[in-house]
TrEMBL record:
Its main location: membrane. It is found in: Cell membrane. Residues 1-379 form the Major facilitator superfamily (MFS) profile domain. InterPro entries: MFS, MFS_dom, MFS_trans_sf, MFS_Transporters, Sugar_transporter_CS. It comes from Streptoalloteichus hindustanus. One of its GO terms (cellular component) is plasma membrane. SUPFAM superfamilies: MFS general substrate transporter (SSF103473). Keywords: Cell membrane, Membrane, Transmembrane, Transmembrane helix, Transport. This is Nitrate/nitrite transporter NarK. It is a multi-pass membrane protein. One of its GO terms (molecular function) is transmembrane transporter activity. The keyword Transmembrane helix applies.
Length: 379
């Protein structure tokens, strides 16, 4: 279910060059369609979280998964009617947003007692993020490989997600509801969301969760030169490299998030800053190898940031507010996906390499500021 959500987000990103060449869409149009996903995702998150806390995780997650599946069918129709790409991407965002909010809470609770007695500490909080990352890594690569070597790529590239989402809908239906009864009477401290810690430790980092990766798999592949007719496959590889690096760094990310909280808060933006410094010469030279290296570093930063933020969310939110607080985190995180669109708009006035250096400077500032804010929030 969560893998299908991540898959639906990245399958479109891997097909951007095919949309440019096949449908004649401009760079600003395709990056704008990436941003439209966020415009649907935000209301999906903000509505899905409170609704899941009120009526249950299961019905909201299953309904969102059905919308997620339908959105892919609309995108397939967009190959012959380009105007459908806009509502298709909007629906993708709405479905993915509600699924992230309700599904993350559902998976977290299914991964902890009494549903999973043997779960290790911290596993439940991060499992949803791992499944989403697996979808990110698989969706773009599979879509690009299919699109590169099959007819009607803007239709066949979406078929795997239809199968995955359909199977997830069938397999998830028997899973039990996990939402417990809302506590009654005066609120006790254990049942109060620690909003101060959320604002200081999570919100400043959240936009970087997807800002850096989206530069790696949206902006940099479009600047690469010297790869001939393999641009679609290259884009798919880039969309796979970013989340794959995030998955590979999870053992370290888990260790830091659970034992060295302030180090974990600083490590994510520090690695993202390094990614931007590598992206600057990659953007200037159009080198395919350096661009992939930068994408991998961005992915490692994404993995560190995601593990820390999800661990913090689980720590600050009581069970009856978990989906709501989770939805707020994902909302702030996905705002970072406007980054490629911002780079496209600003590239008329500044070189992309200059914008990458500016991104590194902002990441360094975050690296310095957030540990101090997180430390003060714990007092």
């Amino acid at each position: 279910m969560m893998t299908a959500s991540g898959w639906s987000a990245n399958q479109f990103s891997a097909l951007l060059d095919t949309y440019r060449s096949g449908l004649g869409l401009t760079e600003s149009t395709v990056t704008g369609l990436v941003a439209v996903y966020v415009l649907g995702l935000v209301p999906g998150l903000l509505a899905g979280g409170p609704l899941a806390d009120r009526v249950g995780r299961r019905p909201v997650a299953l309904a969102a998964l059905a919308i997620n599946l339908a959105s892919t069918a609309v995108l397939m129709l967009g190959s012959s009617a380009a105007w459908l790409l806009l509502p298709g991407r909007l629906l993708t965002g709405i479905g993915a947003g509600a699924l992230l909010a309700a599904g993350s809470a559902w998976v977290k609770e299914l991964s902890a007692p009494p549903f999973a007695e043997e779960a290790r500490p911290g596993t439940a909080a991060r499992r949803a993020g791992l499944f989403v990352s697996a979808g990110f890594a698989s969706g773009g690569l599979v879509a690009s490989l299919i699109a590169q070597w099959t007819p009607s790529p803007l239709v066949t590239g979406y078929l795997p997600h239809l199968l995955l989402a359909g199977a997830a809908l069938v397999l998830a239906r028997p899973a039990p509801e996990t939402r417990s009864a809302r506590p009654t009477g005066p609120a006790r401290p254990a049942h109060v969301t620690d909003w101060r810690r959320f604002r200081r430790a999570v919100l400043p980092l959240a936009p970087w969760v997807f800002a850096a990766p989206s530069i790696g798999f949206v902006t940099l592949p479009g600047l690469v030169r010297g790869i001939g007719d393999l641009r679609t496959v290259y884009a798919g590889v880039a969309t796979a490299v970013v989340p794959a690096a995030g998955l590979l760094i999870q053992p370290l990310a888990r260790h830091l998030a659970t034992r060295y909280r302030l180090t974990a808060a600083a490590s994510g933006p520090a690695v993202v800053a390094l990614g931007f410094l590598l992206a600057a010469p990659a953007a200037a030279d159009g080198g395919p190898v350096l661009s992939l290296v930068a994408a991998a570093v961005f992915g490692a930063g994404y993995g560190l940031l995601l593990a820390f933020c999800l661990t913090e969310v689980a720590a600050v939110a009581p069970p009856h507010h978990l989906a709501r607080v989770t939805s707020l985190f994902w909302t702030a995180a996905y705002l970072g996906m406007f980054a490629p669109y911002a780079v496209t708009l600003l590239s008329g006035a500044f070189a992309v390499s200059t914008l990458m250096i500016a991104g590194a400077a902002l990441a360094v500032l975050t690296c310095v500021a957030v540990p101090a804010l997180a430390r003060s929030a714990s007092r």
